[in-house]
Amino acid sequence: MTESKIEKSLALIRQAVAEYGPDVAFACSFGAEDVVLLDLISRAGRSIAVITLDTGRLPQETYDVMDACRKRYSMPIEVYFPDAAEVEAMVREHGLNLFRDSVELRKRCCEIRKIHPLRRALAGRKAWMTGVRRDQADSRQQMAAVEDDAHFGIRKFNPLIEWSEAEVWAYIREHDVPYNALHDRHYPSIGCAPCSRAIAVGEDPRAGRWWWEQEDGVAECGLHASPLKKR
Ligand code: SF4
């Protein structure tokens, strides 16, 4: 982990706040990258709204790290929930485990439990920040540090875009950053409990998400799969 890479990330955080002030929000899922970004935001001494989604299907370990971060960084965390009427209608029609029945229904579940609440969380904002890294998946290879997010119609900042997985973990260890206990049980990517699993040695890091779908290899939930323009 080079100090220059940390400085570059800190500079991007400061740039986002300088350009957008209260109109930029960090969408945090409390995975390894996101807790590093939370620590960097704290180090940068900048106030950024931290938003997170409670889909209603999260593992207990995610709630635990959420609260550990709340205490450690003394930052308010805005938790957004799905619309109760939408979830009720979906479950009434398709059952609680609809995501196992088809790719279409899995995407519907992600749409209602994640995309709609994220839209609400980002409404009125002009930019958002994420902890995505380029080498997490082939679908993220084209992502840049600053982009126009065509899907949400706002600017997107990715301060960790150039970090490797090893650098993320070196930072967590060195700075004693709270992290999701599921990572110690071989979950590299953590989302909802029924849609995340541990991976075996040699498997793609995102193979533990929606593993029953064979569609196009590694699946995305849609939060970061939108068409993007590099800046
Ligand atoms: S990850 Fe699974 S449970 Fe969570 S919103 Fe998507 S399909 Fe539904």
Automatic annotation (TrEMBL):
Pathway: Sulfur metabolism; hydrogen sulfide biosynthesis; sulfite from sulfate. It is found in: Cytoplasm. It catalyses: [thioredoxin]-disulfide + sulfite + AMP + 2 H(+) = adenosine 5'-phosphosulfate + [thioredoxin]-dithiol. Its EC number is 1.8.4.10. The active site is at 221 (nucleophile). It is an enzyme of class 1 (oxidoreductase). Belongs to the PAPS reductase family. CysH subfamily. This is Adenosine 5'-phosphosulfate reductase. It comes from Mariprofundus erugo. The lineage of its organism: Bacteria, Pseudomonadati, Pseudomonadota, Candidatius Mariprofundia, Mariprofundales. The gene is cysH.
